[in-house]
Amino acid sequence: MNNCIIKFSLSLLVILHIFLSLLLWYFNHASAAELTFNIITLGAKPDEKTDASPVLQTAWAKACDSSEPATIYVPEGIFFVRSVRFNGPCKNNAITVLIDGTLVASSDIHVLANSSSWILFNHINGLSITGGIIDGQGTPLWNCKHSGKSCPIGARSLQINDGKNVNINGLSSINSQLFGIGMNRCQNVHMTRVNVLAAGDSPNTDGIHVQQSSDVTILNSNIGNGDDCISIGPGTSNMWIETITCGPGHGISIGSLGIGAEEDGVHNVTVKSSTFTGTQNGVRIKSWGRPSNGFATNVHFQHITMDNVKNPIIIDQNYCPHLKDCPGQVYFLINLIDVNFFLIIFYLKFNCSPTNHCTGLSLIDINLTYENHIAKASCKNAEGTTSGVVEPSGCLASANFYPYNIDPLGYS
């Protein structure tokens, strides 16, 4: 009898456990369903002409006001978006924007004429943007600029300001009027499998621009445009860039630095295992020739492959694009210290300050050729060391012989 009671009690416990598990599963999934905001359900139309901006703002308000993690879902289809501003802080630290469709901007260059950004996130902690396409419709503005007419500056397609714990995965930003993706004053940013694409002659269309930000990682991404694939501005630290395909474009650049007299520096940047194809430049550090307390230190370019790149390696402390409004100052204060080039696979140029020259440069196993000919190198006020096989032969000066650099090209 006692054995029967024990077996019956155990059976009840098992049934109760299964019932409670099912009940918990139901409530969890019901809660998750309530916290997924489908923009079509909220009234958006994938007809390429009805402005989905108000619906996106409504979805954001609901997600941001939730104390639980929330998702804004953009289904398949093409949704016209005039412009959107997603502001925080929010009540939760886990908002996902899941995009299966395409968000498309206006082709009218005057719609965003007074806006610096098309899609803007402000003061968000715990933002994830996954998949999808954002199309900035930049061609009409590019054409206007090429014509020499008076045109708007343009808007960045996606801008994130004062963000923390940001994750962007699988997003494609195409045809941006200006920069494809911008990060300003952000912390702990992770981007992977990102595509940022624009025409090779599109003006000022940096793929990804980062400034005043720390702990930024960009991995396994494809970037091609009419300007820098990735540009790294003042105040950036602890940035890791790996397995990037760059081209067309102007390469990966630190700078331009030295725009202001008081400026935060760039520290601890690594670019690794990346390929540059058909770009104007490869890896570059550029600063204006004017007094500034800015700097770039602990910078590493490693295992880089370059194919048909006009200027593979450049350090330029007298940067002046288009030769307009050049400061014309010889004695400037940008410091470049501990810059490492390792295993770069025609032209090697270091143009550094006569007062605060580049120091701690290292060239390790550099092999640059142009149409089966050995490339040339030009160094000015650049101090450092070489090791391994370095072609073209290193023109860096040692500390004992600085500033007598070898300059076979007569560069000045």
- Through-space gap between termini: 103 Å
CATH topology of the largest domain: Pectate Lyase C-like
- Structure classification: mainly beta
| Estimated share of beta-strand residues | over 45%
Please tell me the total number of domains.
2
Say which CATH homologous superfamily of the largest domain is assigned.
Answer: Single-stranded right-handed beta-helix, Pectin lyase-like
Strands, count: 32
Query: Major sheet: size, sense and barrel closure?
Result: 19 strands, parallel
Mean pLDDT: 84
Q: Which geometry do the CA atoms define?
A: elongated
Helix content: 10-25%
Radius of gyration, in angstroms, nearest whole number: 26 Å
Organism: Cucurbita moschata (Winter crookneck squash)
Family: Belongs to the glycosyl hydrolase 28 family.
Subcellular location: Secreted, Cell wall
Keywords: Cell wall, Cell wall biogenesis/degradation, Glycosidase, Hydrolase, Secreted
